[in-house]
Amino acid sequence: MDFQKKLIVIIPIIVIALAAFFSFSLYGSPSKVVKNYINQDDVSNHEIINSSDVNQFLEFNKNNNLPEPIINIKAVNRSANQSQVIVNFETFTYDTNNDLKQIYAGSLLFSLIHTKGRWEIKSIDLIEDIRE
Question: Which residues cross the membrane (predicted)?
Answer without folding.
Answer: 7-27
